[in-house]
Amino acid sequence: MICPRCEQDEIKKIKIKEIDKYFFLCPECDATWFSIDEVGVTPFVDFETYMEESGFLVSWDNLENL
Description:
This protein is mainly beta. It has one helix spanning 47-53, and strands at residues 12-16, 21-25, 31-33, 45-46, 63-65. The protein has one domain. The protein contains one helix and five strands; from the N terminus they run ββββαβ. This is Transcription factor zinc-finger domain-containing protein.
Protein backbone atom coordinates (compact mmCIF):
# COMPACT_ATOMS: atom_id res chain seq x y z
CA MET A 1 0.00 0.00 0.00
CA ILE A 2 1.34 3.43 -0.94
CA CYS A 3 1.53 5.95 1.88
CA PRO A 4 -1.54 8.22 1.78
CA ARG A 5 0.45 11.06 3.35
CA CYS A 6 3.42 11.43 0.98
CA GLU A 7 2.39 9.04 -1.80
CA GLN A 8 6.09 8.21 -2.32
CA ASP A 9 6.77 4.87 -0.60
CA GLU A 10 5.14 1.65 0.52
CA ILE A 11 3.83 1.26 4.07
CA LYS A 12 6.01 -1.28 5.92
CA LYS A 13 5.11 -3.47 8.88
CA ILE A 14 7.79 -2.76 11.48
CA LYS A 15 8.60 -4.34 14.85
CA ILE A 16 10.45 -2.72 17.75
CA LYS A 17 13.14 -5.29 18.55
CA GLU A 18 13.08 -4.66 22.33
CA ILE A 19 9.41 -5.59 22.71
CA ASP A 20 6.77 -7.57 20.85
CA LYS A 21 5.05 -4.52 19.38
CA TYR A 22 4.60 -3.69 15.73
CA PHE A 23 3.24 -0.79 13.74
CA PHE A 24 2.96 0.39 10.15
CA LEU A 25 5.44 2.99 8.92
CA CYS A 26 6.22 4.93 5.78
CA PRO A 27 10.04 4.98 5.50
CA GLU A 28 9.88 8.12 3.36
CA CYS A 29 7.86 10.50 5.57
CA ASP A 30 7.83 8.61 8.93
CA ALA A 31 4.04 8.54 9.16
CA THR A 32 3.06 5.80 11.63
CA TRP A 33 -0.16 3.88 12.26
CA PHE A 34 -0.84 1.04 14.70
CA SER A 35 -3.20 -1.00 12.54
CA ILE A 36 -3.21 -1.55 8.79
CA ASP A 37 -6.93 -0.71 8.88
CA GLU A 38 -6.08 2.77 10.22
CA VAL A 39 -3.75 3.72 7.35
CA GLY A 40 -5.32 6.63 5.50
CA VAL A 41 -8.42 6.52 7.71
CA THR A 42 -7.15 7.86 11.05
CA PRO A 43 -4.53 10.55 11.57
CA PHE A 44 -0.93 9.36 11.51
CA VAL A 45 1.59 9.74 14.33
CA ASP A 46 5.14 10.91 13.58
CA PHE A 47 7.60 8.03 14.08
CA GLU A 48 10.14 10.04 16.11
CA THR A 49 7.44 11.53 18.33
CA TYR A 50 5.98 8.08 19.02
CA MET A 51 9.38 6.57 19.85
CA GLU A 52 10.38 9.44 22.16
CA GLU A 53 7.01 9.50 23.97
CA SER A 54 7.20 5.72 24.42
CA GLY A 55 10.71 5.89 25.89
CA PHE A 56 12.49 4.15 23.01
CA LEU A 57 15.71 5.22 21.33
CA VAL A 58 14.91 6.88 18.01
CA SER A 59 17.03 4.65 15.79
CA TRP A 60 16.39 2.46 12.76
CA ASP A 61 18.71 -0.07 14.44
CA ASN A 62 15.93 -0.75 16.99
CA LEU A 63 13.51 -1.76 14.24
CA GLU A 64 12.94 -4.91 12.25
CA ASN A 65 11.04 -5.16 8.94
CA LEU A 66 8.34 -7.83 9.08
